[in-house]
Amino acid sequence: MSNLALELEVINVTNLPVPSERTPAGFYVIVSTSYGQWNTTVKAAMVDHSVPWNESLVIEGLPLAFPRWIMPIFPSTSKAVQLEIRASFEHGCLGRGDLLGTVQTNLEELLLHAGKPFGLPVISAQCPSLLLRVKRANALQLPARTAGNTQQSSGFHSVIGRITDTAHEAYTRYRRGDHPKYLDSAIQGFQEVLDECPKSHPHRGAALSNLAHAIIYGFTKGVRTDIDHAVSLFRHALAHRPWEHPDHSLSILNLSKALHLRYSMGKDSADLHEAVVL
């Protein structure tokens, strides 16, 4: 019997809300099945708040007896599929970033739903939708990029990646409820990750930026966090991301915003001048 599979193409998401308190480097989709986990590349949102991926994966199953069933190649206990849309704050993906929406479905529904948008829960008064294309195929005739062959960076499931995720979750709770203990947990977690990223570490720039953002956000909410320290962290992050780095422009934006905020509080013209010439 031929080795049958599903080819799942993640086409795009539309009407996606872009977080206002922090500009993401881009967005990506995680597809989780019992056969493995896979994610798209990180891509920036277009001006119309859509993100085009047009990327495919292959979900393979062991050949079974072939009754008249829409998915005879997958056991009934292994058809669940979870789709997550996430915002990433750097192209290197230190941790998983912010969760924006989740779709719980199964392989049968994917086939029946092919070519129709999946509606996601309302996010910031917007109703994003995810467009997929699914078809049955012969796995031997498809590229060897399967759900088990993840497209994840070194910081995705590493120890520092998991600590970053925990800190991001605390940071999100603080943004939603302004409870100081969550901000403390976020800053502590981001600092722990930074301590594990020496100057030569590929994720040091992301670790510096994460900590700086938590400090800055606390400052804007009246918490006695050190804005001077945050500006210094953003400067070091920019130094770790020279002009050829994919996150160089984002680092300039982060530092410029921090300098402008400090200028608005203290009216130091040096901050305004530095922000303008960056």
Furnish the topology, listing elements before pairings:
Elements: E1 4-14, E2 26-33, E3 36-39, E4 51-60, E5 80-88, E6 98-106, H1 107-113, E7 117-119, E8 129-138, H2 159-177, H3 180-195, H4 204-220, H5 227-239, H6 248-266, H7 269-277
Antiparallel strand pairs: 1-4, 1-8, 2-3, 2-5, 5-6, 7-8
Helix pairs in contact: 2-3, 3-4, 4-5, 5-6, 6-7
Task: Report on this structure.
This protein is α+β, with helices and mostly antiparallel strands. The protein folds into two domains: 4-141, Immunoglobulin-like; 159-277, Serine Threonine Protein Phosphatase 5, Tetratricopeptide repeat, CATH 1.25.40. It has seven helices and eight strands. It has helices at residues 107-113, 159-177, 180-195, 204-220, 227-239, 248-266, 269-277; strands spanning 4-14, 26-33, 36-39, 51-60, 80-88, 98-106, 117-119, 129-138. The strands form two sheets. It has a four-stranded antiparallel β-sheet with strand order 4-1-8-7. Strands 3-2-5-6 form a four-stranded antiparallel β-sheet. The longest helix is centred in the middle third of the chain and has 19 residues, at 159-177. The chain is elongated and about 65 Å long. It starts with a strand and ends with a helix.
